[in-house]
DNA sequence: AAAACGTTCAACCGCGGCCGG
DNA sequence: TCCGGCCGCGGTTGAACGTTT
């Protein structure tokens, strides 16, 4: 809301206009649209502070607002909530976003759920305006987190793909190539992966490995689902027997929460992961913490997604998390 | 100084999942 | 089982703002 006093209702009205199946609350004539005014913010905040969130459809009327419920919910979630953190994304937050995006794809709400105070909208915007470009400038496909010249798969037109198809994005649409060698790393001309501010060094993301590193694994991709969910099985070469797979397919909230938390602190993660993997399989894990970012190591077979859902620190919507368990 | 161009981000849209009747 | 409403999600838009020419 750069200038709340200026109404963009006409532009917004011109934008919609499809006339197809619009949500009733949004098609109602007479409802205000566009930037929120401080007065509206206050009305909404006061009402929610008093009555609590929820029942968005009827909330505007009860709160005395000429807005649709969706608009109210969005305003509250992305702007007015007390614990929404404003201001620049810190390097460590950026690092975490990169990690989580590589794991989760464009599932902004899940990513936001792991970054306290940040909203899905904010992260999505930040990704599209900063991180995506940054990765591209480094020769990395922001969609797959793989080198651009390595990815021969056609770029899916975001417009052409339904948003719901993308609900289960596969960060690596090419699971047959789990290993990226140094031949595939971006050349230094397109930007060295090690940034001067150092956060990429700490990030230790696959593609961001310093030149000269021999092998960069993308091991987790083996067990990530395809966009249709068909790739969830543990048929990959994880070395587990069916029985073992049954065991490790169980992934508790704590385990996965630890996994995600460990992305924040990779050293801790590496140690924890080794214990986890050894306990579960008896197989000595690889020592390279880089290789440890491997979902399969946490038994994330068919249940990996629900584990993510249930383990999310979702300050945005705890109810939804519970709902999805 | 101002026009042109680029970037940011709040807000909107359509869709699908969930749930109660 | 079906249907309709609600909710939340990801994609997209466009006005405001910043930068360059």
Automatic annotation (TrEMBL):
**Is Nucleus tagged as a keyword?**
yes
PROSITE patterns membership: HTH_MYB (PS51294), MYB_LIKE (PS50090)
Instruction: Assign the protein's first listed, main location to one coarse class.
Output: nucleus
Q: Which domain of life is it from?
A: Eukaryota
Q: Which SMART domains match?
A: SANT (SM00717)
Compartments, record wording = Nucleus
HTH myb-type domain location is 28-80, 81-135
Residue stretches making up the Myb-like domain? 28-80, 81-131
The answer, when asked if Transcription is one of the entry's keywords, is yes
GO terms assigned for molecular function? DNA binding
PANTHER family given for it?
Answer: F14D16.11-RELATED
Q: Which organism is it from?
A: Juglans regia (English walnut)
Bias category Low complexity: which stretches?
A: 1-23
Recorded hits in CDD domains, A to Z, give: SANT
Could you tell me which InterPro entries the record lists for this protein?
A: Homeodomain-like_sf, Myb_dom, Myb_TF_plants, SANT/Myb
Quote a single Gene Ontology cellular component term.
nucleus
One short Pfam name that applies is Myb_DNA-binding
Question: Where does the record place the region Disordered?
Answer: 1-31, 161-198
Name-wise, this protein is: Transcription repressor MYB5-like
Keywords from UniProt, A to Z, are: DNA-binding, Nucleus, Repeat, Transcription, Transcription regulation
């Amino acid at each position: 809301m750069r200038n709340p006093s200026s109404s963009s209702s006409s532009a917004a009205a011109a934008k919609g206009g499809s006339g197809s199946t619009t949500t009733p609350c949004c098609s109602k004539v007479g409802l205000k649209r566009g930037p929120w005014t401080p007065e509206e913010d206050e009305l909404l905040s006061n009402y929610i502070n008093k009555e609590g969130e929820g029942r968005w459809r009827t909330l505007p009327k009860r709160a005395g607002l000429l807005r649709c419920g969706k608009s109210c919910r969005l305003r509250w979630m992305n702007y007015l909530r007390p614990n929404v953190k404003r201001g620049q994304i810190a390097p460590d937050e950026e690092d975490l976003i990169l990690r989580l995006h590589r794991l989760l794809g464009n599932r902004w709400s899940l990513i936001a759920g792991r970054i306290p105070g940040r909203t899905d909208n904010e992260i999505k915007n930040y990704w599209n305006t900063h991180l995506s470009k940054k990765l591209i400038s480094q020769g990395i496909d922001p969609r797959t987190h793989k080198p651009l010249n390595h990815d021969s798969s056609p770029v899916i037109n975001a417009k052409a793909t339904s948003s719901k198809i993308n609900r289960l994005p596969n960060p690596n649409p090419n699971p047959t190539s789990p290993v990226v060698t140094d031949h595939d790393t971006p050349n230094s001309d397109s930007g060295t992966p090690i940034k001067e501010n150092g956060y990429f060094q700490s990030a230790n993301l696959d593609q961001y490995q310093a030149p000269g590193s021999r092998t960069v694994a993308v091991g987790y991709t083996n067990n990530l689902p395809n966009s249709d969910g068909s790739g969830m099985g543990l048929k990959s070469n994880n070395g587990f027997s069916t029985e073992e797979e049954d065991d490790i397919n169980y992934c508790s909230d704590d385990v996965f929460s630890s996994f995600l938390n460990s992305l924040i602190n990779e050293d801790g993660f590496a140690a924890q992961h080794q214990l986890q993997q050894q306990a579960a399989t008896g197989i000595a894990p690889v020592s390279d913490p880089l290789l440890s970012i491997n979902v399969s190591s946490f038994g994330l077979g068919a249940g990996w997604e629900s584990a993510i859902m249930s383990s999310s620190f979702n300050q945005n919507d705890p109810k939804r998390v519970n709902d999805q368990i």
